Amino acid sequence: MRIGANYLGDGECEFTVWSPLLDSVTVKILTPEQQLIPLKPQSEGYWQTKVSDVYPGTLYRYVLNGQDAFADPVSQYQPEGVHGPSQIVDQQFEWTDEAWAGISLESMIFYELHVGTFTPEGSFTAIIPRLPELRELGINAIEIMPIAQFPGDTHIEASLTYRNWGYDGVYPFAVQNSYGSPAELKQLVNACHQHDIAVVLDVVYNHFGPEGNYMNQFAPYFTKTYKTPWGDAMNFDNAHSQGVRNYFIQNALYWLREFHIDALRLDAIQAIYDLGAKHFLWELAQAVHNFSQQGQTWKRHLIAESDLNNPQIIRPAELGGYGIDAQWSDDFHHALHGLLTGDRQGYYQDFGQLADLAKAYNDTFIYDWKYSPDRKRFHGISCRDRSPSQFSVCIQNHDQIGNQMKGERLSQRISFEGLKLAAGAVLLSPNLPLLFMGEEYGETAPFIYFVSHSDPDLIQAVRAGRKQEFEAFHYADDPPDPESAETFLRSKLNWQLRNNGNHKVLWDWYRQLINLRKTHPALLKQDRNFIQATSDEEKQLVVVRRWCESSELIFVMNFNSSPVTVTLPIERNAHKLLDSADTSWSGTGSETAEYLSVGQELKIKATSIVLYEGG
């Protein structure tokens, strides 16, 4: 059932809310004049009514059992924040993306960004002027961190009231008010499509944030059967769970239908617990698939964040899977990060061998029912029956930067040569690459965990939790204060850096790699049977060969701090396409041959990547 306050036009609005355990629900119209209109009970615990003479901008709440009044759980806008009333929204918009045909999933190059820190203004519309440069870089999909309404700190100047990564949202249908209006988000999506850029939205279906969360006043949205890192789990399989499932399915369809979103990234699906015969993710995937089939001009996608290493998530339903289109794979990141940084604390203790990275290229999952020292158990299962294009990989994302205690980016931890090597490792892989905003030019600002709450006890709890989170890493210092406005401001991009010195060189390097990825036949072949990766622990090398019917590429990555010699396993002569050590890429100077004969030795500079094409 369609839920929320749906404006029908001509001053008429239909209000629908799910409250199966309540005796009465009344909508309280607050502006321009107060009115109380009771909703009528419907089947399966829904309440509904139509109200005339109400217009977009009208504020309202629901009065439950004739007592307390709360904002709409399906609120489409919270102009006064999480504790304020809801606002009626007219979803009509003059779209100009009629010719948009979408971007195929296997060709997507993701660019993850946080609206509040991507630009000085921190708004939807401020992103639009930067789209041409993202397009020039080769980006064809921006991935927006969560934008559901989150709480704000009311004891600070208005421009800094709202500071949050987005995972503390409590109104999943309401666009974050400090980022802009629903219409302004549509302007951004419309502009992206005009620049041939898809929009992926990060949505959170595993928990609600701790402040402004009034969901339990309406219905049994939670269950005590399972626990998550945020408390009681969402109720996807207990009594009355059908209303919870419908709530989130309707949310997904809302973003796809009203905002023309191209794909949804599902946050931490390992915390979505459902032991029913039909898993919620399966039902969600079916709903999105059906939506794509019903008069839509382009296919919509679901991408799961998961640390389960379980390909069941992305297998089609006819093979016993959930039918999600793609999923994140952390193993690639952890293997590459460990080699570049030497980190071995926490979950990085599971990685650190060159063979790990080679296995990530060959098999995607390194842990495929293999013992994990960090987890102290066996973990994962093989996913070789799935295409590499169903897995998204990166060397930086919001979590992996934020998981550094001080939010340091790789640019602050490894050399410039290491940054080029990392970019090549990701963009030449057969998986779907994801860049984190600013990565492409070596942004120096950190991306630190930040929040903005108004409850002093909650603020202290967040601070204590953040400190506890890093105990396993045995850091000497305390993490930056997540509640501080300074922590937020320090995380804003220095966009002007992209035009200067090695920042510009790195940007050009990324653009060159992305262009190769989009155009070279061997890189367009995303098939496990056409990739082979090997490693040499002594020399600290990983060699990757990719080919198709018409061409062949081979690249070697040197993680050694010294130059090494190697003979590449080529069966015909080859010529060099790229070498990160070239002076044109601000390297120390390449010593590799422009043309390579079978059996010829190569001397590869320290911390570099070299790419050859056969024939």
Detailed description of the structure:
This protein is an alpha/beta fold and 615 residues long. The chain folds into three domains: 4-87, Immunoglobulins (Immunoglobulin-like, Sandwich); 110-207 and 233-506, Alpha-Beta Barrel (TIM Barrel), CATH 3.20.20; 515-614, Golgi alpha-mannosidase II (Immunoglobulin-like, Sandwich). The protein is built from 15 helices and 31 strands. The strands form eight sheets. Strands 10-11-14-17-18-19-22-23 form an eight-stranded parallel beta barrel, surrounded by four helices. The chain has a six-stranded antiparallel sheet with strand order 24-25-26-31-28-29. It is elongated. The chain starts with a strand and ends with a strand. The relative contact order is 0.09.
In short:
The chain is an alpha/beta fold. α6 packs parallel to α7 (280-293), α8 (330-341) runs antiparallel to α9 (354-363) and α11 packs parallel to α14. The model has no long low-confidence stretch (mean pLDDT 96).
CATH C-level of the largest domain: Alpha Beta
What topology, given as strand order, has the largest sheet?
Answer: 10-11-14-17-18-19-22-23
Mean pLDDT: 96
Low-confidence stretches: none
**Coarse shape:** elongated
Termini separation: 59 Å
Helices, by number, come to 15
CATH topology category name of the largest domain: TIM Barrel
Q: From the coordinates shown, what is the CATH architecture of the largest domain?
A: Alpha-Beta Barrel
Largest sheet: 8 strands, parallel, barrel
How many β-strand runs?
31
Overall domain count: 3
Strand content: 15-25%
CATH homologous superfamily identity of the largest domain: Glycosidases
**Helix content range:** 10-25%
Which value, in Å, is the CA radius of gyration?
25 Å
Structural class: alpha/beta
